[in-house]
Amino acid sequence: MTNRALVTGGAGFIGCHLVERLLDDGHEVTVIDDFSTGRPENLAHLRDRPGLRVIEGDICEPDALAKAFDGAEWVFHLAALADIVPSIQAPVPYHRANVEGTLAVLEAARAAGVKRLVYAASSSCYGVPDVFPTPESAPIRPMYPYALTKNIAEQYVMHWHQTYGLPAVSLRFFNVYGPRARTSGTYGAVFGVFLAQKLAGRPFTVVGDGTQTRDFTFVTDVVEAFILAARSDLAGEILNVGSGDSYSVNRLVELLGGEVIYVPKRPGEPDRTWGDTTRIEERLGWGPKITFEEGVARMVEEIEYWREAPVWTPETIVEATADWFRYLGAAKP
Ligand code: NAD
Questions:
Q1: 18 lines ligand 1 (CB under 6 A)
Q2: DSSP conformational letter for 134
Q3: Cα(271)–Cα(257) distance, rounded to whole angstroms?
Q4: Angle between helices 219-231 and 13-24 (to 10 degrees)
Protein backbone atom coordinates (compact mmCIF):
# COMPACT_ATOMS: atom_id res chain seq x y z
CA MET A 1 0.00 0.00 0.00
CA THR A 2 1.31 3.42 -0.83
CA ASN A 3 0.89 6.52 1.28
CA ARG A 4 1.27 10.24 0.99
CA ALA A 5 4.26 11.10 3.11
CA LEU A 6 5.42 14.47 4.39
CA VAL A 7 9.08 14.81 5.34
CA THR A 8 9.92 17.98 7.27
CA GLY A 9 13.62 18.75 6.89
CA GLY A 10 13.73 16.48 3.83
CA ALA A 11 16.68 18.36 2.27
CA GLY A 12 18.89 17.58 5.24
CA PHE A 13 21.30 14.70 5.71
CA ILE A 14 18.95 12.04 7.12
CA GLY A 15 15.88 13.52 5.41
CA CYS A 16 17.21 13.13 1.86
CA HIS A 17 17.94 9.43 2.44
CA LEU A 18 14.43 8.94 3.82
CA VAL A 19 12.88 10.73 0.84
CA GLU A 20 14.79 8.49 -1.57
CA ARG A 21 13.64 5.33 0.23
CA LEU A 22 9.99 6.49 0.31
CA LEU A 23 10.05 7.21 -3.43
CA ASP A 24 11.71 3.84 -4.09
CA ASP A 25 8.87 2.21 -2.15
CA GLY A 26 6.32 3.97 -4.40
CA HIS A 27 5.01 6.57 -1.94
CA GLU A 28 4.17 10.17 -2.83
CA VAL A 29 6.48 12.50 -0.95
CA THR A 30 6.23 16.16 0.01
CA VAL A 31 9.29 17.85 1.49
CA ILE A 32 9.11 21.05 3.47
CA ASP A 33 12.51 22.56 4.18
CA ASP A 34 13.72 26.13 4.63
CA PHE A 35 17.23 25.17 3.47
CA SER A 36 18.75 26.74 6.57
CA THR A 37 21.18 23.83 6.89
CA GLY A 38 19.76 21.48 4.24
CA ARG A 39 21.06 21.62 0.68
CA PRO A 40 19.11 21.52 -2.62
CA GLU A 41 21.95 19.28 -3.93
CA ASN A 42 20.89 16.60 -1.44
CA LEU A 43 17.69 16.14 -3.45
CA ALA A 44 19.12 16.91 -6.91
CA HIS A 45 19.36 13.23 -7.91
CA LEU A 46 15.64 12.81 -7.10
CA ARG A 47 14.39 15.95 -8.83
CA ASP A 48 12.82 14.14 -11.80
CA ARG A 49 11.25 11.34 -9.82
CA PRO A 50 7.44 11.28 -10.12
CA GLY A 51 5.66 11.80 -6.81
CA LEU A 52 8.14 14.27 -5.29
CA ARG A 53 7.03 17.77 -4.30
CA VAL A 54 9.44 20.17 -2.62
CA ILE A 55 8.17 23.20 -0.73
CA GLU A 56 10.73 25.76 0.33
CA GLY A 57 9.31 27.00 3.61
CA ASP A 58 9.62 27.30 7.35
CA ILE A 59 7.60 24.88 9.51
CA CYS A 60 6.75 27.82 11.78
CA GLU A 61 4.97 29.56 8.87
CA PRO A 62 1.28 28.53 8.86
CA ASP A 63 0.73 28.99 5.11
CA ALA A 64 3.73 26.91 4.06
CA LEU A 65 2.84 24.24 6.60
CA ALA A 66 -0.81 24.03 5.48
CA LYS A 67 0.36 23.56 1.88
CA ALA A 68 2.75 20.82 2.96
CA PHE A 69 0.11 18.96 4.95
CA ASP A 70 -2.35 18.79 2.06
CA GLY A 71 -3.31 15.08 1.89
CA ALA A 72 -0.53 13.95 4.28
CA GLU A 73 -0.98 10.47 5.78
CA TRP A 74 2.49 9.76 7.17
CA VAL A 75 4.51 12.58 8.72
CA PHE A 76 8.23 12.25 9.37
CA HIS A 77 9.30 15.24 11.44
CA LEU A 78 13.02 15.87 11.01
CA ALA A 79 13.18 19.65 10.53
CA ALA A 80 15.35 21.12 13.26
CA LEU A 81 18.48 23.10 13.91
CA ALA A 82 20.92 20.34 14.77
CA ASP A 83 24.35 21.76 15.69
CA ILE A 84 25.66 21.90 19.25
CA VAL A 85 27.91 24.98 19.36
CA PRO A 86 25.46 27.42 17.70
CA SER A 87 22.77 26.23 20.12
CA ILE A 88 24.99 27.35 23.02
CA GLN A 89 25.74 30.68 21.34
CA ALA A 90 22.19 31.47 20.17
CA PRO A 91 19.57 29.31 21.91
CA VAL A 92 16.50 31.29 20.84
CA PRO A 93 16.47 30.21 17.16
CA TYR A 94 16.85 26.63 18.43
CA HIS A 95 13.78 26.99 20.62
CA ARG A 96 11.84 28.46 17.74
CA ALA A 97 12.73 25.84 15.11
CA ASN A 98 12.86 22.78 17.38
CA VAL A 99 10.12 23.44 19.96
CA GLU A 100 7.72 25.95 18.35
CA GLY A 101 8.25 24.29 14.96
CA THR A 102 7.35 20.90 16.43
CA LEU A 103 4.25 22.32 18.09
CA ALA A 104 3.13 23.76 14.73
CA VAL A 105 3.72 20.38 13.05
CA LEU A 106 1.77 18.55 15.78
CA GLU A 107 -1.19 20.88 15.49
CA ALA A 108 -1.20 20.54 11.69
CA ALA A 109 -0.96 16.73 12.04
CA ARG A 110 -3.87 16.72 14.48
CA ALA A 111 -6.01 18.86 12.16
CA ALA A 112 -5.12 16.65 9.16
CA GLY A 113 -5.91 13.41 11.05
CA VAL A 114 -2.68 11.76 9.89
CA LYS A 115 -2.18 7.99 10.13
CA ARG A 116 1.21 8.21 11.84
CA LEU A 117 3.76 10.84 12.88
CA VAL A 118 7.36 9.79 13.48
CA TYR A 119 9.59 12.25 15.33
CA ALA A 120 13.40 12.35 14.93
CA ALA A 121 14.46 12.63 18.58
CA SER A 122 18.00 12.71 19.88
CA SER A 123 19.89 10.48 22.31
CA SER A 124 21.63 13.68 23.46
CA CYS A 125 18.78 13.78 26.02
CA TYR A 126 20.75 11.20 28.07
CA GLY A 127 23.66 13.64 28.55
CA VAL A 128 26.41 11.75 30.34
CA PRO A 129 24.62 8.48 31.20
CA ASP A 130 25.41 6.05 34.03
CA VAL A 131 24.13 2.89 32.35
CA PHE A 132 25.42 1.17 29.18
CA PRO A 133 23.85 0.22 26.92
CA THR A 134 21.50 3.10 27.77
CA PRO A 135 17.79 2.24 27.86
CA GLU A 136 14.93 4.63 27.07
CA SER A 137 14.15 4.78 30.81
CA ALA A 138 17.52 6.41 31.65
CA PRO A 139 17.34 9.86 33.31
CA ILE A 140 16.92 12.86 31.00
CA ARG A 141 19.93 15.17 31.40
CA PRO A 142 20.34 17.58 28.48
CA MET A 143 23.78 19.21 28.57
CA TYR A 144 23.27 22.01 26.02
CA PRO A 145 20.33 23.87 24.43
CA TYR A 146 20.15 21.67 21.31
CA ALA A 147 19.60 18.58 23.50
CA LEU A 148 17.10 20.47 25.67
CA THR A 149 14.99 21.70 22.73
CA LYS A 150 14.90 18.26 21.09
CA ASN A 151 13.74 16.72 24.37
CA ILE A 152 11.09 19.37 25.08
CA ALA A 153 9.76 18.76 21.57
CA GLU A 154 9.69 15.01 22.23
CA GLN A 155 7.62 15.67 25.35
CA TYR A 156 5.19 17.67 23.18
CA VAL A 157 4.98 14.77 20.74
CA MET A 158 4.17 12.30 23.54
CA HIS A 159 1.72 14.74 25.10
CA TRP A 160 -0.14 15.14 21.80
CA HIS A 161 -0.54 11.38 21.79
CA GLN A 162 -1.70 11.30 25.40
CA THR A 163 -4.15 14.20 25.12
CA TYR A 164 -5.36 14.11 21.52
CA GLY A 165 -4.67 10.50 20.56
CA LEU A 166 -2.21 11.55 17.85
CA PRO A 167 -0.62 8.30 16.56
CA ALA A 168 2.95 9.44 17.21
CA VAL A 169 6.22 7.57 17.73
CA SER A 170 9.55 9.07 18.78
CA LEU A 171 12.82 7.56 17.60
CA ARG A 172 15.92 8.54 19.59
CA PHE A 173 18.89 8.43 17.26
CA PHE A 174 22.47 7.94 18.34
CA ASN A 175 25.36 9.24 16.17
CA VAL A 176 24.01 8.93 12.65
CA TYR A 177 26.54 8.90 9.81
CA GLY A 178 26.51 8.20 6.10
CA PRO A 179 26.88 9.88 2.71
CA ARG A 180 25.77 13.51 2.57
CA ALA A 181 26.26 14.07 6.32
CA ARG A 182 26.27 17.78 7.09
CA THR A 183 29.26 19.82 5.99
CA SER A 184 28.07 23.23 7.22
CA GLY A 185 30.48 25.90 8.41
CA THR A 186 29.92 24.86 12.03
CA TYR A 187 32.35 22.56 13.79
CA GLY A 188 30.45 19.33 14.33
CA ALA A 189 30.14 15.62 13.73
CA VAL A 190 33.43 13.73 13.68
CA PHE A 191 32.93 12.09 10.25
CA GLY A 192 32.62 15.36 8.33
CA VAL A 193 35.61 16.78 10.19
CA PHE A 194 37.83 13.75 9.49
CA LEU A 195 36.83 13.22 5.84
CA ALA A 196 37.54 16.86 4.94
CA GLN A 197 40.91 16.55 6.71
CA LYS A 198 41.70 13.32 4.85
CA LEU A 199 40.94 14.95 1.48
CA ALA A 200 43.12 17.92 2.35
CA GLY A 201 45.98 15.67 3.54
CA ARG A 202 45.80 17.19 7.02
CA PRO A 203 45.99 15.31 10.34
CA PHE A 204 42.83 14.08 12.04
CA THR A 205 42.01 16.24 15.07
CA VAL A 206 41.16 13.62 17.69
CA VAL A 207 39.41 14.91 20.81
CA GLY A 208 40.93 13.76 24.12
CA ASP A 209 42.89 10.54 23.73
CA GLY A 210 40.47 9.03 21.20
CA THR A 211 39.41 6.17 23.49
CA GLN A 212 35.91 7.67 23.83
CA THR A 213 33.36 5.54 22.00
CA ARG A 214 30.26 6.40 19.99
CA ASP A 215 27.23 4.44 18.87
CA PHE A 216 27.74 5.20 15.17
CA THR A 217 24.54 4.24 13.31
CA PHE A 218 24.46 4.11 9.52
CA VAL A 219 21.83 6.31 7.88
CA THR A 220 20.06 3.56 5.89
CA ASP A 221 19.47 1.66 9.14
CA VAL A 222 17.90 4.81 10.57
CA VAL A 223 15.70 5.14 7.46
CA GLU A 224 14.53 1.54 7.92
CA ALA A 225 13.50 2.36 11.50
CA PHE A 226 11.44 5.33 10.23
CA ILE A 227 9.66 3.14 7.67
CA LEU A 228 8.90 0.33 10.14
CA ALA A 229 7.57 2.85 12.67
CA ALA A 230 5.30 4.46 10.05
CA ARG A 231 3.94 1.10 8.90
CA SER A 232 3.37 -0.14 12.46
CA ASP A 233 0.40 0.50 14.71
CA LEU A 234 2.61 1.85 17.51
CA ALA A 235 1.67 5.10 19.22
CA GLY A 236 2.94 6.94 22.27
CA GLU A 237 6.23 5.00 22.21
CA ILE A 238 9.83 6.17 22.50
CA LEU A 239 12.41 3.88 20.89
CA ASN A 240 16.21 4.05 20.77
CA VAL A 241 17.79 3.58 17.34
CA GLY A 242 21.46 2.59 17.62
CA SER A 243 23.99 0.28 16.06
CA GLY A 244 23.98 -2.16 18.99
CA ASP A 245 27.63 -1.34 19.68
CA SER A 246 30.01 1.52 20.45
CA TYR A 247 33.21 2.27 18.52
CA SER A 248 36.20 4.33 19.58
CA VAL A 249 37.36 7.40 17.70
CA ASN A 250 40.77 5.69 17.52
CA ARG A 251 39.15 2.76 15.66
CA LEU A 252 37.62 5.23 13.19
CA VAL A 253 41.05 6.81 12.63
CA GLU A 254 42.53 3.35 12.10
CA LEU A 255 39.91 2.55 9.44
CA LEU A 256 40.36 5.92 7.69
CA GLY A 257 44.16 5.83 7.92
CA GLY A 258 46.20 8.97 8.47
CA GLU A 259 48.14 11.16 10.89
CA VAL A 260 46.60 12.22 14.18
CA ILE A 261 46.82 15.35 16.29
CA TYR A 262 45.08 15.68 19.67
CA VAL A 263 42.76 18.49 20.81
CA PRO A 264 41.38 19.01 24.35
CA LYS A 265 38.43 17.00 25.56
CA ARG A 266 35.25 19.08 25.85
CA PRO A 267 33.12 19.50 28.95
CA GLY A 268 29.64 17.92 28.97
CA GLU A 269 30.47 15.25 26.41
CA PRO A 270 30.05 11.59 27.38
CA ASP A 271 33.02 9.18 27.19
CA ARG A 272 30.64 6.73 25.67
CA THR A 273 27.34 6.62 23.82
CA TRP A 274 25.71 3.24 23.38
CA GLY A 275 21.99 2.74 23.04
CA ASP A 276 20.05 -0.23 24.31
CA THR A 277 17.98 -1.29 21.29
CA THR A 278 16.04 -4.13 22.92
CA ARG A 279 12.76 -2.20 22.75
CA ILE A 280 12.85 -1.41 19.03
CA GLU A 281 13.90 -5.00 18.29
CA GLU A 282 10.86 -6.24 20.21
CA ARG A 283 8.33 -3.69 19.01
CA LEU A 284 9.35 -3.31 15.36
CA GLY A 285 11.63 -6.26 14.64
CA TRP A 286 14.28 -3.69 13.71
CA GLY A 287 18.01 -4.36 13.84
CA PRO A 288 21.03 -2.63 12.30
CA LYS A 289 22.29 -4.16 9.03
CA ILE A 290 25.40 -2.14 8.17
CA THR A 291 28.55 -2.90 10.14
CA PHE A 292 30.84 -0.06 11.16
CA GLU A 293 33.57 -1.26 8.80
CA GLU A 294 31.12 -1.35 5.85
CA GLY A 295 29.71 2.05 6.75
CA VAL A 296 33.13 3.69 6.95
CA ALA A 297 34.09 2.13 3.59
CA ARG A 298 30.97 3.65 1.99
CA MET A 299 31.84 7.07 3.40
CA VAL A 300 35.31 6.85 1.93
CA GLU A 301 33.85 5.86 -1.48
CA GLU A 302 31.90 9.13 -1.47
CA ILE A 303 34.64 11.27 0.03
CA GLU A 304 34.48 13.84 -2.80
CA TYR A 305 31.30 15.23 -1.18
CA TRP A 306 33.54 16.79 1.51
CA ARG A 307 35.71 18.66 -1.02
CA GLU A 308 33.99 21.98 -0.20
CA ALA A 309 33.67 21.30 3.55
CA PRO A 310 35.73 23.33 6.02
CA VAL A 311 39.09 21.79 6.94
CA TRP A 312 39.49 22.13 10.70
CA THR A 313 42.83 22.63 12.43
CA PRO A 314 43.54 22.66 16.19
CA GLU A 315 43.63 26.48 16.04
CA THR A 316 40.28 26.92 14.26
CA ILE A 317 38.73 24.31 16.57
CA VAL A 318 39.86 26.25 19.66
CA GLU A 319 38.21 29.35 18.20
CA ALA A 320 35.01 27.53 17.17
CA THR A 321 34.55 25.80 20.53
CA ALA A 322 35.51 28.73 22.79
CA ASP A 323 31.90 29.25 23.88
CA TRP A 324 31.50 25.53 24.55
CA PHE A 325 34.38 25.64 27.07
CA ARG A 326 33.30 29.03 28.37
CA TYR A 327 29.74 28.01 29.30
CA LEU A 328 29.79 24.24 29.76
CA GLY A 329 33.19 24.17 31.45
CA ALA A 330 32.47 26.94 33.94
CA ALA A 331 32.10 25.92 37.60
CA LYS A 332 28.47 26.58 38.54
CA PRO A 333 27.57 27.91 42.00
P1 NAD B 1 20.22 18.42 9.00
O2 NAD B 1 20.59 19.74 9.55
O3 NAD B 1 20.98 17.89 7.84
O4 NAD B 1 18.67 18.38 8.66
C5 NAD B 1 17.70 19.24 9.26
C6 NAD B 1 16.89 19.87 8.15
O7 NAD B 1 15.86 20.68 8.72
C8 NAD B 1 17.72 20.77 7.24
O9 NAD B 1 17.49 20.42 5.90
C10 NAD B 1 17.22 22.18 7.55
O11 NAD B 1 17.32 23.05 6.44
C12 NAD B 1 15.78 21.89 7.96
N13 NAD B 1 15.19 22.92 8.84
C14 NAD B 1 15.73 23.49 9.95
N15 NAD B 1 14.86 24.38 10.47
C16 NAD B 1 13.76 24.38 9.69
C17 NAD B 1 12.53 25.10 9.71
N18 NAD B 1 12.25 26.00 10.66
N19 NAD B 1 11.62 24.85 8.73
C20 NAD B 1 11.88 23.94 7.73
N21 NAD B 1 13.03 23.23 7.67
C22 NAD B 1 13.96 23.45 8.64
O23 NAD B 1 20.30 17.38 10.23
P24 NAD B 1 20.20 15.78 10.25
O25 NAD B 1 21.45 15.27 10.82
O26 NAD B 1 19.68 15.27 8.96
O27 NAD B 1 19.08 15.61 11.37
C28 NAD B 1 17.71 15.39 11.05
C29 NAD B 1 16.92 15.24 12.35
O30 NAD B 1 17.42 14.13 13.10
C31 NAD B 1 17.03 16.46 13.25
O32 NAD B 1 15.75 16.66 13.85
C33 NAD B 1 18.04 16.06 14.30
O34 NAD B 1 17.82 16.72 15.53
C35 NAD B 1 17.76 14.57 14.41
N36 NAD B 1 18.92 13.79 14.87
C37 NAD B 1 20.05 13.70 14.12
C38 NAD B 1 21.13 12.95 14.59
C39 NAD B 1 22.40 12.81 13.79
O40 NAD B 1 23.33 12.16 14.28
N41 NAD B 1 22.50 13.35 12.59
C42 NAD B 1 21.05 12.32 15.84
C43 NAD B 1 19.88 12.45 16.59
C44 NAD B 1 18.81 13.18 16.09
A1: no
A2: B
A3: 23
A4: 60
Q: Which helix (H) or strand (E) holds 63?
A: helix 62-69
Radius of gyration (Cα) for the chain, nearest Å?
Answer: 19
Contacts of 108 (CB under 8 A, 6+ apart): 65, 66, 68, 69
Residue with CA at minimum distance from ligand 1 atom 15: 80
Long-range CB contacts (< 8 A, 24+ apart) of 309-313?
A: 309/183, 309/192, 309/195, 309/196, 310/183, 310/185, 310/187, 310/196, 311/196, 311/197, 311/199, 311/200, 311/202, 312/187, 312/193, 312/196, 312/197, 312/205, 313/202, 313/205
Report the predicted TM-score, pTM, of the whole model to 2 decimal places. 0.96
253 contacts 210 by C-beta, under 8 angstroms: yes
The residues assigned a catalytic role are 146
Amino acid at 63: D
Q: Are 203 and 197 in contact (CB under 8 A)?
A: yes
Nearest atom in ligand 1 to the alpha carbon of residue 101 is: 18
What digits encode the pLDDT tens for the residues 188-244? 788 889 999 999 999 999 999 999 999 999 999 999 999 999 999 999 999 999 999
Which residues, at least 6 apart from 235, have a Cβ–Cβ distance to it below 8 Å?
116, 161, 165, 166, 167, 168, 169
Ligand 1 in contact with 60 (CB < 6 A)?
yes
Domains in the chain (CATH in brackets) are 4-176+217-241 (3.40.50.720), 179-215+245-272+290-328 (3.90.25.10)
Residue pair 32/75 in contact by the 8 Å Cβ criterion:
no
Residues 168-196 have pLDDT tens digits of 999 999 999 999 887 766 777 888 899 99
Q: Is 205 in the pocket of ligand 1 (CB under 6 A)?
A: no
Distance between CA 40 and CA 31 in Å, rounded? 11
